[in-house]
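Note to self: the last two entries modelled the partners one at a time, which told us nothing about the interface. This time every component goes in together.
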Amino acid sequence: MLWLKAFHIFFVVSWFAGLFYLPRVFVNLAMVPAGSDAERERLLLMARKLYKFVTPIGLLAVVTGLWLWFAFGFGGGWLHVKVALVTVLLGYHFYCGRLLKDFAAGRNTRSHVWYRVFNEMPVFLLLAIVILVVVKPF
Ligand code: HEM
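The predicted structure of the combined assembly is written out below.
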């Protein structure tokens, strides 16, 4: 079980590297002046590669978590709330994919300020999930 948990934490950390950085690229994309196509294309390429890289890693974080849950008999309110928050996190991840498509199609209407606030959401989710799984308050 410890090997599985070690890989679970590895995939979680790698997933969050992407969840923290991808919206930051969106902040920069929302600030690209009109006509700066080279800069826009460079940022879009970076965002596409990052999204493609962290999507399977996020799914592996979830698969190893479910494996821990079902193979080793974990349970309790903490795990149910954790899984609910992870579902929100998955929604956030795939919403980033949709926002990336909007940027690529030139459909983005949101400001860089909106993306700065949006960028903070994974921080609070991570804090809540780590407290739930380590402290197991209920
Ligand atoms: C559906 C998704 C997930 C499930 C079912 C799940 C389930 C679990 C289970 C059963 C454990 C073992 C708990 C223990 O040994 O006490 C665990 C460990 C852990 N999980 Fe998840 N997890 C999921 C996703 C995540 C995510 C997204 C994060 C990060 C935000 C995360 C962070 C952790 C951490 C840090 C540990 C190690 C806790 C410790 O060693 O005390 N998990 N997870």
